[in-house]
Design a protein that fits this description.
With about 575 residues, this protein is mainly alpha-helical. Among the domains are: about 140 residues, Alpha Horseshoe (Leucine-rich Repeat Variant), CATH 1.25.10.10; about 140 residues, Leucine-rich Repeat Variant (Alpha Horseshoe), CATH 1.25.10.10; about 70 residues, Leucine-rich Repeat Variant (Alpha Horseshoe), CATH 1.25.10. It has 39 helices and no strands. The N terminus is likely disordered. About 65% of the residues lie in helices and about 0% in strands. The N and C termini lie far apart (about 60 Å). The chain is globular and about 65 Å long.
């Protein structure tokens, strides 16, 4: 084994910025396993690195490489997502591969790329009909993801496949494809019947929620799955009930079943019913009185079950394990009706369990300004020993918008925990002039060690009106020097800084050519706010109307063109 083969990849992984020739050198070595390792290493660095090296990565397919390398190329294309749409021309080669794993991965890649892969629908449809089980699964998902409505019959036929795995894939594809009303209602009926299969329950419940009103006739059957013994099934059902909220509320049998479950002897099912009602929001207001008792219900399902303790699965949300959390979450989601119980919810802010304190903060945050009277009860939690409680307390104060809390929030923008600083900064931005009084503390965070905090500080400056505008120069410096996440925040902020932002119109326009789609979109949005000062960049904006990343970029580009009067809607 050569020295190059044993040392090159680790050396490059230690290098903050790779030179293209170094990547070419590694991908050109004889050993396929090391090629694959290099591609995965690039993919782990995110979309920007992947797009920078995509020509080299897909160029590997012109070599005689094994399945491991081809699968790695697929993984890199998926990281690129819609922005990698220009490289879908390489997918036919992978879809025709003799290795089922490669073909499956190519189908999943088409699904991730989205509409740019719609030209491959016919090939993928054939695989969905005649492939192996693993290939059928991936092909059916791809048909749904790329919106291949013309092959709806292939997807719905897969609902009755002999393989549970293919059925699960078909459930999700039905929800994604954009199915017609008649086909959707028929599919919903079949999906509801599939839910009796233990292996398909989660996907079936998820699909019914994705179908929305087309699955309204299945609302009763869906609600009756909330007492399933599997917490993942209960969570999926609760989420889908929220997506069918109006249908469930209008169905007396379904809604009364949910209310009845609130009184179940099994605390797990009480929690599940409350979470479902929380997802229904105002549609579930008629159950508010029944939920009030949850705030005093001490049921707690043990957190450390064997599968959680063994690392086989993540713990489920606190609202599915603690009735107090579930009750607070549900009442907080019910708007003005839930606000009638704000005092009872605030009582939980002093609960000895940190998860309950978090739930109380989130419930009050959901009630917003209707719960402004609770601000003084939240302030002590800004010094809670648990960082997550401090963060959620700051978030709640931002949502209820009590200007008298500005000084308290300003005190924690230098908290040791980045998430606390982020929430405090975001909250200050919502407090108007009172928040802007502490702008110097916000400015100090522009050099924070955490890039997410720097981004939050920049967005806060952008939302602080006239006072924030005077910091445009400092924001531009971060635009030119910091990573993409911070650059994105800087572009958004400069677009809100009026004449002070216009002064840097050329620096902003440079990002119309960024390899990162989000930055191109943000630059377009900012320029659209600058009027005649940005007209000189209209050609670049017009070009983005056909951006390979799709609507993520083309929509803000079109809106900017319309705002500048350089094209019609």
């Amino acid at each position: 084994m050569t020295t190059l083969e044993t040392t090159a990849v680790p050396t490059i992984l230690l290098t903050p910025q790779w030179a293209p020739e170094s990547v070419d050198e590694i991908l050109g070595i004889p050993r396929d396993s090391q090629k694959a390792d290099m591609i995965y290493a690039i993919a782990e660095r995110g979309e920007v690195e992947v797009l920078n090296y995509m020509p080299t990565i897909v160029g590997v397919l012109d070599m005689d490489v094994n399945a491991e390398v081809k699968v790695a190329v697929c993984a890199a294309l998926r990281v690129g997502g819609g922005a990698a749409g220009d490289y879908t021309t390489r997918l036919p080669q992978l879809l025709a591969d003799t290795d089922d794993l490669v073909v499956s991965e190519a189908c999943y890649t088409a699904a991730a790329v989205g509409s740019s892969a719609k030209c491959l629908a016919s090939t993928i449809n054939s695989l969905a009909k005649d492939g192996s089980e693993s290939v059928k699964m991936a092909a059916v998902v791809a048909l749904g993801s790329i919106g291949a409505v013309e092959y709806t019959s292939t997807i719905t036929r897969a609902l009755s496949d002999t393989s549970s795995e293919v059925q699960k894939a078909a459930c999700l594809a039905v929800g994604m494809v954009g199915i017609s009303e008649e086909d959707g209602k028929n599919a919903a009926t079949e999906i509801a019947s599939i839910s009796s299969n233990p292996r398909c329950k989660i996907e079936a419940a998820t699909a019914l929620g994705m179908l929305g009103d087309l699955a309204c006739e299945q609302s009763e059957a869906l609600c009756k799955q909330l007492d399933d013994g599997d917490e993942d099934v209960r969570l999926a059902v609760a989420v889908s009930i929220g997506q069918l909220a109006s249908s469930v509320a209008a169905n007396d049998v379904a809604f009364n079943y949910l209310k009845g479950l609130l009184k179940s002897d099994d605390g797990r099912f009480r929690c599940a019913a409350a979470v479902a009602l929380a997802n229904m929001k105002e549609h579930a207001s008629a159950a508010a009185e029944d939920l009030k008792d949850f705030l005093y219900d001490d049921f707690i399902e043990p957190l450390n079950t064997s599968v959680v303790a063994g690392g086989c699965r993540a713990r489920c949300p606190s609202a599915l394990r603690r009735t107090k959390c579930a009750g607070a979450l549900a009442l907080g989601a019910m708007g003005s009706k839930g606000a009638e119980f704000a005092d009872e919810i605030a009582y939980l802010l002093e609960d000895p369990d940190w998860e309950v304190r978090v739930a109380a903060c989130d419930a009050i945050a959901a009630l917003g300004e209707d719960a402004k009277d609770q601000a003084t009860k939240i302030i002590p939690l800004l010094e809670d020993e648990k960082y997550f409680v401090r963060a959620r307390a700051a978030h709640a104060l931002g949502q209820i918008k009590d200007p008298d809390t500005a000084a308290n929030l300003a005190d924690i923008v230098s908290d040791a925990c980045p998430s606390v600083k982020e929430e405090a900064l975001a909250a200050l931005a919502k407090l108007g002039d009172e928040g802007a009084e502490h702008i110097e503390k916000v400015f100090e965070r522009l050099l924070d060690f955490s890039i997410t905090v720097r981004a939050a500080a920049i967005r806060t400056l952008g939302n602080m009106g006239e006072k924030g505008q005077y910091y445009a120069g400092a924001v531009v410096q971060r635009l030119l020097e910091d990573p993409p996440l911070v650059k994105l925040a800087a572009l958004e902020a400069l677009g809100q800084m009026e004449d002070h932002g216009v002064a840097y119109v050329e620096e902003i326009a440079d990002f119309l050519n960024s390899p990162v789609p989000e930055l191109r979109a943000a630059a377009a949005t900012a320029l659209g706010k600058f009027g005649s000062e940005a007209e000189g960049f209209s050609s670049g904006l017009k070009a983005l109307r056909n951006d390979p990343a799709g609507e993520l970029v083309s929509k803000p580009a079109l809106e900017a063109c319309i705002a500048l009067g350089v094209c019609e809607g």
